[in-house]
Structures are given as structure tokens and as C-alpha cells.
User: Fold Tetratricopeptide repeat protein from Metabacillus elymi.
Amino acid sequence: MGKKVRTQYRQNLISTLIKSNPYIRPENVLREIEPKQEVAAVLEPVKELVHERVQQLVDEVVDEPVQIPSPESIPAQIQLSLEALVDELVDILVQDQDQSFSNQNNSIKTENSNKSNKSKVNGSYSNQTREKNVNKEQSQVSSKVSIPQNEPLNAAIELHNEGIMGNKQAVKSAYNSLKDLAKQDKNNLEIQAYLGSATTLLGRDANSVTDKMKYALEGLKLLDAVVESAPNLVIARLLRGNVSFRLPEMYFQRTSTAIEDFSFLVQAYEKDSSILTESEYNEVLKNVIEACKRSNQLEKASMFQNKSKTVNGEGKVKGNSTSSKQSSSKSSTKAKKNSKGKGLTDEAINIYERALNGSSVEVQEAIEFFENFVLTNSAPEVEMAYLDVQSMQGRDSINTYDMFGSAIKSLKAMDSLVNEYPSNRDLRLVRANHSLRLPENFFRRAATAVSDIEFLLKEYENDPTYLTEETYHQLLFDLGCAYERLEMIAEANETWNRLLKTKTSLSEVMQQKVYDKREVYAFQEINLSKYSTSNKDQFYNMAKELHYLGAKGSKKAAKQSLEAWEKALKAYPNCEVANTYYAASAALMGKHASDPQEMFGETIKALKILKTSIKTDNPELLYLRGSIYHALPEGFFHSSDKAIKDLKAVKSAYESNREKPRISHEQYVKLLFDLGQLYKKTSFLDNAEKTFITLLKVAPESKYAQRLVSQGVNKE
Assistant:
């Protein structure tokens, strides 16, 4: 481009800057310009950007941040910085005559945003990079590829990049545009990658924690699918790497993915430096170093730091990918050498599983065993099991501090261990189960469970011998439950349907679990106005069905159950059935709440009513209340004694009138198991043993009996 054209760009640019920000004046940029010159429309988008950039420069030399720029004079210290700013913007404007200004402006914004330390979900990438890097061939690393101009896609990407900078409306527009484009061109992996990134941005901007988790996970699934289909697609690696790097590690466990993607980009850049700009490459290096440090891979971090130090002016790196591989290999070998011992013995596995299925008694036995076992066997599987049983102390604790403290301490240690041995199947399985045991409202570990289970299922596809069919089925079911927690209902149903279609036969228990879930999500809201409280029996039967379906997991049914029983209370304010079921339905709303405050509010409201709602010895109502008391965390509500009192009364009523019982046989069996566990929790061990023996006699084939046998309980 000629000198005359370049000068014209400079004059137009500076004229725009003067009009948009009073800090910019002719004397500040040390150039002769014509302030009255007409400003080119193409320069309009830089106004806000330059205003922010100049304000940052001024803030560096004044005591207080500048809110409204209205200076009498500009500090001399930043005049050279302003001149450099103009030079930088002009260089970008003229570097490619064929490229539109809007594309270059995205690159300007991204680079400047990286220099300011603003929080972003994704990192920097420009349309220039995108046009250089698209390559859907999997056999070689992408380099410069000429693609046809796609204005709708370019516009969507521009919105996406605006969204990265914090523009929430741009995120929504980008998402909708990319979603439409993806429908029109289902095989375009570039569109899919950007759609995945835009979806994670929706999560960043969501108000509820559940939505944040849900959209982030949906976006990651799209990005993972693209990388799996085209592992050498540079833009997909760049997008996924930045998304993974920005997501909270405690919830998503994606640092390892970020390292994988950034490492790929570093090696690809060493082969072809045209795939990234120098600033993008430096950003990748900075992020991979931080990611390695975050996951305690210090040797690998040092290797990338050396690369960062040796980048020359042309953006090429001294060194090669072979040294990188050798360093990585050494690190992996070192990790393997640090693993001592032979792993879990049969005795250790038995004690660990008893703790999983048992009460505080079995947990304490397991802790005492593993305290000594880890001294002579420090294999990662042993350490993981020990961490898990320590976490169970919090599960059974009556102290809220211990409850949370044990869980948080264990999950952090588990994450560290998995980061050290990311391919260890046993560790991933334990962490997945641990994540699903923790209350989602407090710990937000469903995304971690999804990550671990999907890893295990892929491993199973490659090696079906490493899992039993029963464990494989349970993993598929649990994956659906993890999606359910994230309110990704379509994915949950798809997973459960996949389970039903497996070639291997499911157990009756597992089949029933899946059918229960399908029943929950097949529920359609009913028209309550069609039911009149004047027909009391019919209305109560309908409302009870809603409550039971809500207890199985249907939020819609739980909500309608509360509405129905509220209507019943207005008609029959002194009815103990209406009062008790209304309270039970309020407790269900607490169970389905999306945040802790709402959960506690609804539960406390329900407990106040339950305290006085039952006036007689009605076994049905006592069972309902006792089951609610039993389900509450003891550390918060201290309701075990109340649960024992109610369930004990129901047990006596059932056993004294088996011909016309007020609860079903299945409910009675569950009552025996729950009551026995409550006796153990409160140290009434003789009562617990007697109750369990009764269960083994009346229902020896039940799932509860099987759990008791696994804990060493015998009929005699």
C-alpha cells in the first residue's frame, strides 16, 4: 500500500480520535493533521475502543481513575504512548488492503483486551487467524487456506468476538445467528466450533448457577465433538483451549483439555508460524504455562517458559516439538515412578464398599483401616479410596462445619490426584461417584461427574473388559442423572434411552430406575380446574399422585401438587391429610430449589407445618412425615430422633394389622432399612441389628437386603 494511502488512513484515524475523545489532540500525536477533515464512516467502530484505551493510559499516571474525560491538558508522560497507539492502529488498518475494517477491529479489540486485565470466558482470536487456519483435513496441521467469503458467518463471528469483550446482547445475537447457520450447514465444523464457544458465553452471562453450568457444558460438548471430528482444526483448538482455560477448575475439570489444545497449537506453530499471529502465540504460551502450573505440571510449565523466552522477532521458536515430547514423556515417567504399592487389595475393596453402603460405623472402620494401609501402600487408587471415606465423615456428621469441611478438603485432594494421573480409570470412577453424592446446590459437581463418566464410557468403548456390565449400566444411568442436575433434560433422556438400548440385559432394579425417570419426564401438567374439592376422595387421590410423582423427581408435578393441596386446605382447613400433604409438597419444592436460600426457606416452612399437622396415629401420614425427617441432612435439621419416632410407630401399626395395612409392602421394606440406618446413626446398635434381621426375613431378595448382606449383616 502506498505512502499516500497510509497517510490518509492516519489522518482519518486521528481525526476520528479527536472527535471521540478530548484527550486526543493534534499536539498529543506529534503529527500535522486537519481536524475539520471529514471522517470516514468505516472508522466509527473504533471510537468506544479508543476511548477505553486512552482512559487506561491516563489512569496509569493519575491517582484516581478517570470517569469523564474533560482535561485542560494531557499529562506529558503519556504522549509517546498515544503516538504508539495511533501507529499500532494504523498498522492494523493497512496490513491487508483486501480485509474489511470490521474484521481488523475485532483483532484490535482482542489484543487490547488482553493487555488490560479484564475477565473473559474466552481468549483472543481474530477473523484474520480464522481465515488462515480453517482446514478440515485430519491428516495434517492447517496452514493458510483460502475459503470463500461468508458474510453471515463473518457477522456472527464479529458478534461472538464482541461478546467475548462483555457485550451480553452480542452474545445472544451471535448464538442465535450461529445456531441458524449450523442448521443450514450441518457439516461446517467452523460454525459448530463458534457455536460451542458462544454457548459457553451464554453460561457466563446467565443469572442462575444452574444455567451457567448447563450452557458451559453444552458448549463444551459441541467443541469436543468438533475437535474429535477434526483434531487439526486450529480455530476449534484455539476456541476450546480458551474456553477450557477460563472455566472454574473445581466444577469443570478442564485444565487438562486446555493444556492439550494449547500444546497442539504450540507444536503446530513451530511447524507453520502463519497459523497464529505472534501476539496470539504469546497468549497461548502464557495460558499454557499458567494451566500447567495450575495442575502442578511444573516441568512442563518450565519447558513452555523456555519457549516463551526464545521467541524471536519473527515469532519463530528456537527448539522443536521433539524436545517438547521428550519433556512431556519424562514428566509422565516421573509421575509413574512416584506411584508406589500394588493398589487396593480384596480386603481394602471390601472395607471401602462397606463404608460406601453403610453408616458412620462402617465409615469409621474404613478410616481406621486406611490410616494404616496407606503407610505401606501409597498407590493412587489407595489414596483415592482413603479420601473418599474421609469425605463420608462429612456425610454422616451432625456438625455443618465438619460436613462441608470434609467434603471440600476431599474434593480438592481428589482433583489434584486426578490431575496427576488423568488417565487412571479407577480415580475417575471414584471422583464421579463422589461428585454425585454431594448436594448440587452447595458443591456444583455435576459437571465434574459428566466429564469423568464420559471419559470412562469412551475407555469402555475401547476396552469393554475393564468394566462389568453392571458398572457400565450404572455409569450410563448416573450420566443421565448428572445431566438432570444441570437441567439438561434432553441429554438426560437421550442417555437413559441409550441405556435401555444396550445389547446386554439390564437388571430389574435398573430397568425400574430408568422407567421411573421416563415416567417423571413424560408427565404433562394437568388442568387442576377440572377437579373439584367437593368430590374430596377424587381430588385427594389426584393430588397424592401429583405428590408421589414430584417425590420421584418431577418439578412440574411437585409444583402442581403444592397448588392442589393449597386448594384442598382452603376447602378443608382443619383436615390433617391436607395439612400434612401440603407441608410435604412444600418440602418437595425445597428439594427441587435451584439455590440454597430457596431450599432452606421452603424446607423450614414445611417443617413448621409438619410439627403440628398430624393429630391422629394415621400410619400413612406418619410414614410421609418420617420419610421427610429421615431425608433431611442431620447437620442442618437434627431430625433423626423425630424420624425414628414416626417410622417406629408406622412399623408397629403395619405389623399389628398386616391384613389391612395403611402402607404397602414395598414401603414397609424401605421403612425397615431406613429405620435400621437411623438406629445405627444414633448408636442404638442392638435395635439396628434386630430391624435389619427382620428385613432380611421378610424381603431377602430386595435391593435393601442385598446392601445389608454386602455390609456383613446375616439373618441369624
